Amino acid sequence: MRPLAGLVAGLGADLAAGFGLLTRLPVGWLVREGMPFRPGRAVWTYPLVGLVVGGVEAGCLWLGHRIGLAPALAAAWTLAVAVLLTGGLHEDGLADMADGFGGGRTPERRLAIMRDSRIGSYGALALVLSLAIRGSALAVIAGFAPGRGLALMLATGALSRAAMLPVLSLPPARPDGLGRSLGTVTVSTRIVALVIAVVVVCATLAPLLAAGLLLLAFLLGVGIAAMARARIGGSTGDVLGACVVVVECGLLTLAAL
Fold this sequence. Notes:
It is a single chain. The chain is mainly alpha-helical. It has one domain (38-256). The chain is 75% helix and 0% strand. The chain is built from 12 helices and no strands. The chain has helices spanning 2-22, 46-66, 71-86, 89-103, 107-115, 121-144, 149-162, 165-168, 178-181, 187-204, 207-232, 237-256. Helix 4 packs antiparallel against helix 5 (107-115). It is globular and about 50 Å long. The mean pLDDT is 89.
């Protein structure tokens, strides 16, 4: 029984680390006293976090449809709830990455801009465009396929978080920050995260749509990782957050088709 108890406690610690980082949900009760806090080992939970966030978004979209809200208004409220649930973490990363990559001429300058808490024109434009794209796609889904909203949101939530895996394969771009604190993410941890995301997508969507979303998420994740390597020489927490938003924009656009 003792090894089983240790396994359960370890899973609880991983879930607390994953949900504690990517959401504002109160998950401290999952951690038992004396259990090590290992953020890198919790990467396998990221698709599960996306699954929960996507489920909440789907519930909001469905509720808005049921009470008679216009699709655009239901989509706006859905985005508002999602941002509150995640604390705007991913949007903050997108804005910082856009400012740094757009305004800096050297890797050092780009990293310095990304660390600045002030938002610039590139960051503001990235936020507005990303919200517009996701909101428009959600409005289409709410207006024409509200019954499929749950499956679509579950799949995109899980897959957009799994798309961070190519970025996580990069070395940290700075000696501190989230990229460094995660430490080494093992191959087995990445495989578990990938399997969870693929299972969610394949179990909830038709084969053709599932294949399209998987391919698009892979291409976008690899593309962002390649851009980060070229622009700043590695990964940061901002790049990870931006990856989630960009991939979600792409997946929702494809799903809205």
